[in-house]
Amino acid sequence: MISVEGLKVEFGVTPLFEDVSFVINKKDRIALVGKNGAGKSTMLKILAGLQRPTEGTVAVQRGVTIGYLPQVMVLSDTRTVMEEAERAFEHIFEMQNRLQQMNQELADRTDYDSKEYHDLIERFTHENERFLMMGGANYKAGIERTLMGLGFSPSDFHRPTSEFSGGWRMRIELAKLLLRHPDVLLLDEPTNHLDIESIQWLENFLKTEPGAVVLVSHDRAFINNVTNRTIEISCGRIYDYRVPYDQFVVLRKERREQQLRAYENQQKEIKDTEEFIERFRYKATKAVQVQSRIKQLEKIVPIEIDEEETASLHLKFPPAIRSGNYPVICENLKKAYGAHVVFHDVDLTIRRGEKVAFVGKNGEGKSTLVKCIMDEIPYEGKLTIGHNVQIGYFAQNQAQLLDENLTVFDTIDRVAKGDIRLKIRDILGAFMFGGEASDKKVKVLSGGERSRLAMIKLLLEPVNLLILDEPTNHLDMRSKDVLKDAIREFDGTAIIVSHDREFLDGLVTKVYEFGGGLVKEHIGGIYDFLQKKQIDNLNELQLSSSPSVSKGKEEKEPASEGRLSYEAQKDLNRKIRKLEKQVESLETSIGDMEQQVAQLEERMATPEGASDMKLYEAHQALKKQIAEAEAEWENVSLELEELRE
């Protein structure tokens, strides 16, 4: 589908990469990996045709469509969510307008027997068949399915996009891209603005897409679940592995060991040659051999070794005083902005030494509760911070508190104490501030770089309660490993707000789920929580009329008017689960039929298939089945939404 030949990109004296060649085939699911600054985003821009390489060619097969999602983009704020998503179907609307014009012309004309009239009927029939084939009659169901998969609720569809944060607007752009179903999807950090449920939905979507996918992501679980091929950019070259990321890590380690052995052998050869030249340089009888060795030395091409894995760096929080047994206790906590209640009746107790995760859809109150704990915003109810608690807080805005006139190195040097000062360069390298980057002034750093620097600073301060709000957003996989190991060995308490399953796995022992204005406690790790979610979708969390299911509340409040009894709630949840299974089954069925349609259309596009009426009949029958299944999906989804309200 896309062929890359002899690619070279220069931004200075040293090329970013050179002599790069590879082919993207249909069904390829490629993870593009490498350290920050290796050229991953640049490669995606070149594949998308947005940037020209210094040398080389990118050949795209005729008729192949490419969809590209950058990390950051300029977003429009003039439409509703649905109107913006519908822009993915502008080609459908153009076709619809043409059909309406032809239909009107057929109604207005009276020359029924003329050749022109019959030609118009034929054109109308052909265009109408194409319109139906492209899903023109059912595009709205696809939009709703995709928006809901990415975390929007039906009540959001007609809200102006200007009411949403930048992260939610990026979701709309992702929805538009997915709805166009391009042959090749290029995704640069698509999970940065998604919660766990939306990431899982995106995984399933990408796994069933018939086209190719090339993605850059620091979410290890996501790329392992989606990709079947890994291309690494390292030392200006690429290494192509036909395996998912975890297998690539093993093979990469073996490759580096081979490089190291070859490098050591070459260094020994160079040393022996130099010693020979030095020893016999002035002996006339050895002049020929000396000249031969000098030429041999000049011809040696130095062996480059891949970047050293810095994840092995051991970083330990400095000792802090012991906190009380219960660093955080919330009782009947409530936070509302006017009529909008973010959460209510929150009862939770975090014990000393516990590491807990706050998870849930964006906008459900995770960061709001953190701000309540930090006493940054007012709230109702009781929130107690325990005895001797020293809080280390990381949020994106913490980066704004750094001294802009200091260098990166000086910023860390001022907080590092004891032996750790000897490892400052190693620590900075582990968080992507290696080499000259450590001498940069803070004021010239990007937002992501400042966030990483604020994270390092926090790691070196003596605290006994860590509160981290999306700590991995600007970290690569090696940096995340360093941070994860440090938190795992931290003997204090940690609250982590994150959507990164791989990061939370093996780190937290309790999960608090935010949703529907409620906070529910789940004992166990992140994958225990996800497994439970698949068995029991915890629909009561989405019911605004349900009783509080915050810890300890079920037995405290009697059923009253407007609240469901236990048995009624149980029956309602059972009905909702049944409908959810129906929706899931219909979505799977529609996806399978759409794949069959795509396969038939491929065959119909060949010279042999174009004249095969059986293919055409099968295609029409499948399209009819899809339309019926989508109509049923709409009805079931509507019934489900009514039960949830």
What is the makeup of the main sheet?
Answer: 6 strands, mixed
If you consult CATH, what is the topology of the domain at 328-542?
Rossmann fold
CATH C-level category of the domain at 328-542: Alpha Beta
Mean pLDDT across every amino acid position = 79
Task: Give the name of the CATH architecture of the domain at 328-542.
Answer: 3-Layer(aba) Sandwich
First-last Cα distance? 46 Å
The tally of helices reads: 20
What's the CATH H-level homologous superfamily of the domain at 328-542? P-loop containing nucleotide triphosphate hydrolases
Strand content: 15-25%
Strand order of the largest sheet: 5-6-7-3-8-9
Organism: Phocaeicola salanitronis (strain DSM 18170 / JCM 13657 / CCUG 60908 / BL78) (Bacteroides salanitronis)
Domain ABC transporter: 2-260, 328-541
Family: Belongs to the ABC transporter superfamily. ABCF family. YbiT subfamily.
Region (Disordered): 544-567
Describe this structure in words.
The protein has 645 residues and is an alpha/beta fold. It is built from 20 helices and 18 strands. Strands 5-6-7-3-8-9 form a six-stranded mixed sheet, with helices on both faces. Strands 14-15-16-12-17-18 form a six-stranded mixed sheet, with helices on both faces. Strands 2-1-4 form a three-stranded antiparallel sheet, with no helix packed on it. Residues 535-564 have low confidence and may be disordered.
Task: Write a short abstract of this structure.
This protein is an alpha/beta fold. It contains 20 helices and 18 strands. Helices cover 44% and strands 18% of the residues.
